[in-house]
């Protein structure tokens, strides 16, 4: 799993220029330059074990593989939109609000104008490999694990790929 995370991140990094910037094409041909920030700290397995002991939240193996390479990152922010942020492990507890989300879920990041990027630890503990969801004005089940989400969000260049199906019909997308 660690190699897959590293492969995804290494492929992403190869697309960046010397200043960690990338030209992003968003919807309807909109182009913007985004700076990608990787937290160079790593999280040790001992720190992850301590986190689990203190919070009761089991960190999925694919998410652990990410933390072992980068303890957080920011990506795809631009002139008109904020960064998609993956929190540092230490920030997760500060972002968790039991009055808004279930106790067995925890936020690992934030997606601008959508909400918190969540892991459902209970689903993961029960062996469900589809444990990622978004908590916002409307909750949305992403139906994937962390490595799938990371791969998809990078391929989609920060666009909300989960909204693509059914968003517009072919007849309304192109109007003459």
From TrEMBL:
Coiled-coil zones: none
Pfam families the UniProt entry points to: SMI1_KNR4
Domain Knr4/Smi1-like: 43-151
Protein name: Knr4/Smi1-like domain-containing protein
